[in-house]
């Protein structure tokens, strides 16, 4: 199983000098990606947002910078909001990252859980699903064909045009990211695309039927489910002790969840909710290396996932603590998980 990290590059939305705040965060982010590579993690993902509380609106730009600072770690969006972007440009940008990284780029495409990009780029939210379906179809065509002929309702037709550059990987890896919508899960299975499931609340085991739906949808579309990869993407943090991990992570994570909750009508979180969620059945993977490794292994038994991505740098997490967390994740957690899973994976 691959182990990695993802982040949205959170910044202080109330910073007076937003340029300086963004520059600080992106400099720290480059250090975080480089360290993740050094300690042997497999994947690093960057999210796309168009809000004051996040520094990255163009994941491919950040990943291109990371490509020349790293050697082996895979570099992915997490996610690219395909519905409000141009698939041709998305493909070209990630093909460029792939060339810069010597074949380590991936696209994780999603519909977007935030909607700011739709009015920003002139799209109607009433076309939310149609935009994603059509643009995903075009992106898949771009991966397969150098000279593209395509037409649809949400974008100008392409009358037999070549699309360049071509990536080193053929085809360029493409994942579908979902937040729990069964229709999106089934679509990924029908199309034969890898599936990344975000779990940021509740009991993760309750999401396991979605992977069953995914595999069954693939089977019904005459695809071999055994060839399709899955990932779970979660919140969490690693520190030298479980007590420290919880104390450091609680305030930044709670601030983000409460800010988003006010926008979406969720109830506020508190320390009691947080502590319950970092228990064995909860959605937070927070603790010392042994605690986090045990929980990752336990959930692998539930999901059978091929990839596990952890969002540690959430909210205004102190950079030094994040760097220590990455070090522990790569040097302590990852070896424990790989050792525990080796017999199961060998016998699979």
UniProtKB/TrEMBL annotation:
One Pfam family cited in the UniProt record for this chain: Bac_luciferase
Species whose genome carries this gene: Ciceribacter ferrooxidans
MF GO annotations: monooxygenase activity; oxidoreductase activity, acting on paired donors, with incorporation or reduction of molecular oxygen
NCBIfam families: LLM_2I7G
Matches recorded under InterPro entries: Bact_Lucif_Oxidored, LLM_Atu2307-like, Luciferase-like_dom, Luciferase-like_sf
Domain of life: Bacteria
Keyword Oxidoreductase: yes
Keywords in alphabetical order: Monooxygenase, Oxidoreductase
SUPFAM superfamilies: Bacterial luciferase-like (SSF51679)
GO cellular component: cytosol
The protein, known as: LLM class flavin-dependent oxidoreductase
Residue ranges of domain Luciferase-like in the record: 1-302
């Amino acid at each position: 199983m691959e182990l990695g990290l993802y982040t949205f590059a959170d910044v202080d939305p109330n910073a007076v000098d937003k340029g300086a705040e963004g520059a600080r965060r992106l400099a720290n982010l480059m250090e975080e990606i480089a360290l993740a590579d050094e300690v042997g993690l497999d994947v690093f993902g960057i999210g796309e947002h168009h809000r004051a509380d996040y520094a990255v609106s163009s994941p491919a730009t950040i990943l291109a910078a990371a490509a020349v600072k790293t050697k082996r770690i895979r570099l992915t969006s997490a996610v690219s909001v395909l519905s409000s972007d141009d698939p041709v440009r998305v493909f070209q940008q990630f093909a460029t990252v792939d060339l810069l990284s010597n074949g380590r780029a991936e696209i994780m495409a999603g519909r977007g859980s935030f909607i700011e990009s739709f009015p920003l780029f002139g799209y109607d939210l009433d076309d939310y699903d149609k935009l994603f379906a059509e643009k995903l179809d075009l992106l898949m065509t771009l991966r397969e064909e150098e000279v593209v002929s395509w037409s649809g309702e949400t974008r100008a037709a392409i009358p037999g045009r070549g699309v360049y550059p071509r990536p080193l990987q053929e085809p360029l890896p493409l994942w579908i990211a979902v937040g729990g919508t069964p229709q999106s899960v089934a679509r990924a299975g029908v199309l034969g695309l890898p599936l990344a499931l975000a779990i940021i609340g509740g009991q993760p085991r309750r999401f396991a039927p979605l992977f069953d739906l995914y595999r069954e949808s693939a089977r019904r579309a005459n695809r071999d489910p055994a060839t399709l990869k899955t990932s779970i993407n979660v919140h969490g943090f690693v520190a030298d002790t479980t007590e420290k991990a919880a104390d450091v992570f609680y305030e930044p994570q709670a601030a983000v969840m409460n800010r988003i909750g006010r926008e979406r009508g969720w109830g506020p979180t508190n320390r009691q909710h947080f502590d319950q969620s970092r228990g064995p059945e909860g959605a937070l993977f927070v603790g010392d290396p042994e605690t986090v490794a045990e929980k990752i292994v336990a959930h692998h038994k539930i999901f059978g996932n091929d990839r596990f991505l952890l969002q540690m740098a959430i909210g205004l997490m102190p950079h030094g603590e994040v760097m220590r967390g990455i070090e522990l994740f790569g040097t302590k957690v990852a070896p424990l998980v790989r050792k525990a899973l080796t017999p199961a994976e060998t016998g699979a």
